[in-house]
Amino acid sequence: SWDTYLDMVDSLFANIAVDRDLLHEQAKQFAMRRASHSGRTAIQFYRQFVSKT
Q1: Which long-range contacts (C-beta less than 8 Å, at least 24 apart) are formed by 8-17?
Q2: Of the candidates 17, 23, 22, which has an alpha carbon nearest to the alpha carbon of residue 8?
Q3: Residue 53 above 90 pLDDT?
């Protein structure tokens, strides 16, 4: 579910200061482009996000 996916995203970003609403929107868009909102997708989103900063 989306709630589980976003909980996973939140745990990955626990030590990063970022607007949670914006983060969730970007995470959802990332997942929709990949047609998956699994834990693996959350990790891939996290890796892409931190590589850009």
Answers
A1: 8/39, 8/42, 9/42, 9/45, 9/46, 12/42, 12/43, 12/46, 13/46, 13/49, 16/50
A2: 23
A3: no
For the question of whether the overall pTM of this predicted structure is more than 0.85, the answer is yes
Provide the token pair at 35: 């047609």
pLDDT digits over 24-40, tens only? Answer: 999 999 999 999 999 99
- Residues 19, 40: Cα–Cα separation, whole Å: 22
Are 13 and 45 in contact by the 8 Å Cβ rule? The answer is no
Q: CA-to-CA distance for 39 and 25, rounded, in angstroms?
A: 16
